[in-house]
Amino acid sequence: MRKYFMIVAFLFLAVNLYAGSAYELNCSNCGYKTTLYYGIGDLLEVVVNGYCLTCKEYVRLSYAQPGIPKEERKDVINPVSSVYSPLFAKSKVRALYTCRFCSKLLLEILPEDLEANMNNCFCPKCNTNNISITPKTWD
User: How much is the pLDDT for 34?
Assistant: First the structure.
């Protein structure tokens, strides 16, 4: 019995080792829906999630698939600057990056920001406080 428990525990840990976390955002007012991924999944290493004020969209910045040499990776992710706000959860400083679509500034969003604002998140499309955030795992 103990042997089976150890095998199940090992498999559970091995699966979660390669899984990341995700947050699904849904607006009950206008139907806006997006998912923010954090951590490492099978095919994609997510480095930064952020919000672009110009595109009015959540944007994901990530490296190309693991296994591709660094010099061949397409996205180069370096912070442009940083910003301070007492409204951010835990760490009060967030990095600013360049949006990969419009090249304007993108504000970094951390998982703790989403967790701290589960019931107080505004929709980027209709600007109402109707976004529900659902935590998930991804692999």
Answer: 92
